[in-house]
Structure formats: structure tokens, C-alpha cells
Design a protein that fits this description.
Order of helices and strands: HHEEEEHHEHHHHEHEHHHHHHHHHEHEHE
Strand content: 5-15%
Low-confidence stretches: 3-48
Number of strands: 10
Helix content: 25-40%
Largest sheet: 10 strands, mixed
Number of helices: 20
Strand order of the largest sheet: 1-2-3-5-4-6-7-8-9-10
Radius of gyration: 22 Å
Distance between the termini: 27 Å
Structural class: alpha/beta
Length: 531
């Protein structure tokens, strides 16, 4: 899941354009009888069954584009359906095998703050072929994000750029930078409260889950097919507990533990941040160690940063970090390099070789060349505004974080003792929430074990720099009926690191006919990095 901070815009663009903060073959095109049969009595639903979905008037996003675009109007407040409405930008790629079509697969590519109208088209080829043939692939920019009615706390692009220049890149180092950081995010919260306070209180995950159920109705599916990655796993779990009888097939890939998101049963001031509760610091440290081990086990021709052995490569990385603390290379400070390293671990190919190349350039005293991005996808707005406030608006209103900016220095040092440099990055990633002005008016904090009409498939990756494998274990344990599929691989999400035919096969069979992998199934990548 992307984290906030002044580097978030750069990181989010890289995630959008190279892969993200997640991703086959049997029946004819109909919903299996098991999916339409009797199910446990559902919990109370909102909106009510009498509410119709918004009308979607599809048209090509651009002339000749294989993607269709539409705009859905939904209530700002689902408890007041006759009140103010907001717009949701929606995209669709129709099933390539229409005679075998099963229905619609809704996809949330993560975030919070991920624009589905860009990220899903950009990464369409990562979806297993069977899913592209059997389902219309649909995604949307969640409320508050991108081309939907968005949280935008600045009057002009120039104001947004001026604000983004204030906090240091990556995270703050030293008292002066800590003050610049906290002052900037306090100012951001004040600006947002002035611009549209009502919107800030209605961009929660529960609000978006209710939007998703309206979109399901709009496409005419009696039950939901859903693939959620990273933050999209919390969205999926929320939907499954608000609308348990409407789940046909749901895959949650690279999971956030529900109690880590909500803060658990503790009352009063939260003692730590969302990401530290999740264990993002520990899993980033473990993934970095694995990166350095595999890099050091390979020759420099395969991993540019290799020093000839795992131990020597770890030492080389530590020396580079110490040197950058004292002598930055141009704009490449210690903190910016740590942030770039964590983000560079998200996507294995081409991300890991590219990260090794940047680290090697820095070790030679040279600033890395700017990264090249693939062409934008053929959608209506391939580069929407994605300011830090959009991600912050969702999780600061949903998930509790310490409200005292002074607490973050102590949390940083504690995290650094257990997770090294990555701990500093993940601690400050949540500091925007310390002074965020709004809490959700209609959030959802559980329970998470409401019986669903069909089992949920949960996928966890062993070496994930953002959402730890323990999050997938927790998700599978907390949902009423879920099966855990282990990806003994690398990177953030199995979908966007879709290098395992084993994972793809199980995903496809599950979506097509509901077949779950056997309990305890472990899949491995088709190729080991740097091999």
C-alpha cells in the first residue's frame, strides 16, 4: 500500500505506471449453482435492496481504446441518499471470450489513494488469461481519489507544488527536518478542512464498500466477484461483512490484518501507528535482507550492486547508508534513498534489478538517472491529481494513529532498533494522521467474522515490503470462511508480481468455479530474482 509523504507522488506514479501498492478454466459462462444457492442469513445491509445502482453509460475512454469509461453518481452520505451526490470514475475492459463470459470482476489495486482507472488498465496484462476471457474487468477511482470527486486541498497546481516542496524527501532526519515535516502536514490538514469538510468525513472504506455494492447492481451481477490487493483487502473484508450474502468470489491479495487497521480493542490514544501495528517495518527489513542476500549470491552481471557474497553486499549497503547520512549525492539524501529502496522492493521485475542499479550508481558517487516510465494507458485521464491528502483522507479517518506529532520520534527509534532504516521510513509514513482534522462519519470497525455466501481466498507473500505474511494469516483467521494460499515469493502482491503459474492457476479456478486450493497450499515463483 502506498504511504504518504513528499515522495508519495513520485512513488505513486511509479506504482501506477510499472505495476502498483495486487494479481486459470472450467464451466460455461454462468454463475455456479453453489454461488446462487442458500447462504447464511446476512447481516443488515446498507443501502437497502430497493435502492438501484447508478446508471453507467459506457463509451470508449478514447477513440479506438479497448477500455470503456463511465461516471457513476452516488450519495455522499449513504444514510441520506436524497442528499448531495458525488461522481465515481469507472473503467471497463470487456471479456475477451464473450461467449464464455461469467460476469464482472471488480478490482481495487490498492492504496488508499490508488486510481483504479489508471492502475488496472496499466497492468491489465498481469491478470491471468482465464480471468480476462471470462470476466469484464472493471475498476474505479474510489471516492476522494483521482478522477472521482477528489480530495484536493489546493486552489491551483502551483499551490500543490509549493506545499510538496516543504517536507523533506522520504522522512525527516534531525530536529529541523522534523519541524518542517510536522508543520507541513499540520498545514495540509488545515487546508483540507477549509476546502470540503463534508467530503473528508465521507471517504471511509465503509463508504467505498457501499459504493461498490451500488456498482455491482449497476452491472447487473446478483453477487460480487472482487479482487482486492493491499489496501483493497481491507475494502474487500469490509464489503464481505457489510454484504455477506452478496459474495460470489473474493480474492484478497497482500493483506492488512483487520485489527491492525482498526487499532484493535484498546481504548484511548493509540500507542503506535497503522503501519507499525501491521508490521510493515519488520517485513520491509526482511524483504530488504532477502534482496541483498539474493543480489550478493549473484554475479554483478545479474545484480549490479553485488559485492560477491550476501554478507559483503549487506555491508556495502550499510556503508552506503552511513555515507549518505553525512554526504548526500545531489538530491539523494539518506532518507530519500531509504524510501526509494523500500519502494523499489515492491515490484520484482523490473523493480529489483533497477533498484540494484540505482544503489550501485550511488555507491560510485553518482546520482542515478531519472527513471523512465511506460506509456500511459488509453484512458480518459491517465494522469489525475494524486496529492498526499487523498491517501491521508482515507486512512486517517479510518485507522487510529497517535495524535501527538512529538510521539513519532520515539516510535521511529524503537522501530529502527528492530527494523533498521526501513523502520524510520514506515514510522513517519503515518505522521500526517497526527493532525488530520476529520474522522469517518460512517466507518466500520468489525466484526470481521460474519458468515459469507461463499469462502474467501486470501493470498499472502512471504517477502513483501509493505504488507507482511502475518497479515494474510490474520485475515484468513478473522474472516468467517477463508482459505489461505501462500506465495513463497517476493514483492508486494502476487498479482502485480505475477511470476507464479501456480498462483494464477488457483486464482483462476477459484473465480471460475469456486474451487479452493487444498489447505496449506504453498506456491513458488517461476523464477528467483537475479537467477
Amino acid at each position: 500500500m502506498p504511504a504518504p509523504g513528499p515522495a508519495a507522488g513520485r512513488r505513486r506514479r511509479a506504482a501506477v505506471l510499472t505495476a502498483a501498492l495486487a494479481c486459470s478454466v472450467l464451466l460455461a459462462g454462468h454463475v455456479p449453482a453453489a454461488a446462487d444457492g442458500a447462504s447464511p442469513a446476512p447481516a443488515p445491509l446498507s443501502p437497502s435492496p430497493s435502492v438501484t445502482g447508478p446508471r453507467l453509460e459506457w463509451s470508449p475512454c478514447r477513440p479506438g481504446s479497448p477500455w470503456d469509461c463511465a461516471t457513476a453518481k452516488v450519495p455522499l452520505d449513504h444514510a441520506d441518499p436524497a442528499g448531495r451526490t458525488i461522481d465515481l470514475a469507472v473503467v471497463r475492459r470487456q471479456a475477451t471470450g464473450p461467449g464464455r463470459r461469467i460476469g464482472t470482476l471488480f478490482v481495487n489495486p490498492g492504496g488508499p489513494g490508488g486510481p483504479g482507472t489508471v492502475q488496472v488498465p496499466q497492468n491489465y496484462d498481469a491478470f491471468p488469461k482465464e480471468l480476462r476471457e471470462r470476466f469484464d474487468i472493471v475498476s474505479w477511482d474510489p471516492r476522494g481519489v483521482g478522477s472521482s470527486t477528489a480530495v484536493n486541498c489546493f486552489g491551483t497546481p502551483g499551490e500543490a507544488r509549493a506545499w510538496a516542496a516543504r517536507p523533506p524527501a522520504g522522512f525527516p532526519v534531525g530536529a529541523q527536518e522534523r519541524k518542517a515535516w510536522t508543520d507541513a502536514y499540520e498545514d495540509l490538514g488545515r487546508r483540507c478542512e477549509k476546502r470540503d469538510p463534508d467530503l473528508l468525513r465521507h471517504v471511509s472504506t465503509a463508504d467505498t464498500a457501499r459504493d461498490l455494492d451500488l456498482l455491482r447492481r449497476s452491472v447487473g451481477d446478483p453477487r460480487l466477484n472482487y479482487l482486492g490487493v493491499s489496501y483493497g483487502t481491507i475494502l474487500g473484508a469490509t464489503y464481505a461483512n457489510l454484504f455477506p450474502g452478496r459474495v460470489r468470489a473474493m480474492v484478497l491479495d497482500s493483506n492488512i490484518a483487520p485489527r491492525a487497521w482498526t487499532g484493535g480493542p484498546t481504548q484511548g490514544e493509540p500507542r503506535t501507528t497503522t503501519f507499525l501495528r501491521m508490521g510493515s517495518d519488520r517485513t520491509a527489513a526482511a524483504t530488504l535482507d532477502r534482496f541483498l542476500t539474493l543480489c550478493g549470491s549473484a554475479p554483478a552481471a545479474r545484480c549490479a550492486f553485488s559485492a560477491g557474497s550476501p554478507g559483503a553486499t549487506r555491508d556495502k549497503f550499510d556503508r552506503l547508508m552511513r555515507r549518505l547520512r553525512e554526504r548526500p549525492i545531489g538530491s539523494w539524501t539518506y532518507a530519500r534513498t531509504v524510501a526509494d529502496t523500500v519502494n523499489g522492493l515492491y515490484i520484482v521485475d523490473p523493480g529489483w534489478p533497477a533498484l540494484a542499479g540505482r544503489l550501485q550508481q550511488l555507491s560510485q558517487g553518482r546520482a542515478p538517472e531519472p527513471q523512465a516510465y511506460p506509456p500511459a494507458p488509453p484512458v480518459a485521464e491517465p494522469n489525475p491529481y494524486l496529492g498526499d491528502e487523498q491517501a491521508a483522507a482515507v486512512w486517517c479517518s479510518d485507522s487510529p494513529n497517535p495524535r501527538d506529532p512529538a510521539a513519532y520520534q520515539g516510535l521511529e527509534e524503537a522501530s529502527a532498533r528492530r527494523a533498521g532504516d526501513a523502520g524510520r521510513f514506515w514510522t513517519w509514513a503515518a505522521e500526517a494522521c497526527a493532525t488530520w482534522p476529520a474522522r469517518s462519519a460512517a466507518g466500520y470497525d468489525g466484526p470481521w467474522n460474519t458468515p459469507t455466501a461463499r469462502p474467501v481466498l486470501v493470498i499472502g507473500t512471504r517477502y513483501d515490503p509493505s504488507t507482511p505474511y502475518t497479515g494474510a494469516q490474520a485475515m484468513a483467521g478473522e474472516l468467517s470462511d477463508a482459505r489461505l494460499l501462500t506465495n513463497d515469493g517476493y514483492g508486494h502482491t502476487a498479482l502485480f508480481n505475477n511470476g507464479s503459474r501456480c498462483i494464477s492457476g488457483y486464482e483462476s479456478r477459484y473465480f471460475v468455479d469456486g474451487t479452493l486450493p487444498p489447505p496449506g497450499t504453498v506456491c513458488r515463483p517461476d523464477r528467483i530474482p537475479f537467477s
